[in-house]
């Protein structure tokens, strides 16, 4: 029954609700909100577990939360603010809690994206875009298959070589982070 210590739940809830509201209206998550979350998370962790253990839990959760969503940012499927928000959520939850919350966030975001594609009858364009992302990941900018570690002479990816089709637009992923995080916390209570 005591899976989430007292100050963690209300702090995380306040953080993700404010981020979701801001993301819906401004379509971005402000850095000041993330910084406040990171500082508050460090204070809460140190108060609950002592200075050393608190800092370790804080760092592990921050790195885990951000690392799970980082590939989505690198593939241009979400914004940097989403990754930073998930890192701020993770700093409250520790590494294992951040991982559980991030998995729930990914499930909520995936179901929401699928529902939006179906609602707007854009499934074919969405699947085409996913294929373009997978091809971009597996091939360098020149279009030839990767050399499995050998130098190709390219200095870097200069742009998207596959054309992505317009779909329904972007989702305010801060909402998915809020819903997924709350579901994860409530399952641990």
TrEMBL record:
One BP annotation, GO: signal peptide processing
Alphabetized InterPro entries for the sequence: Prepilin_IV_endopep_pep, Prepilin_peptidase/N-MTase
Residue stretches making up the Prepilin type IV endopeptidase peptidase domain: 13-114
Top-level lineage group: Bacteria
Chain intervals for the UniProt region annotation (Disordered): 143-167
Membrane-traversing stretches: 29-48, 55-75, 87-115, 170-187
One matching Pfam family: Peptidase_A24
GO CC aspect terms: plasma membrane
Keywords of the record: Hydrolase, Membrane, Transmembrane, Transmembrane helix
Record Gene3D superfamilies: 1.20.120.1220
MF annotations from Gene Ontology: aspartic-type endopeptidase activity
UniProt family annotation: Belongs to the peptidase A24 family.
Protein name: Type IV prepilin peptidase TadV/CpaA
Organism in which the protein naturally occurs: Paraburkholderia caribensis MBA4
Organism placement in taxonomy: Bacteria, Pseudomonadati, Pseudomonadota, Betaproteobacteria, Burkholderiales
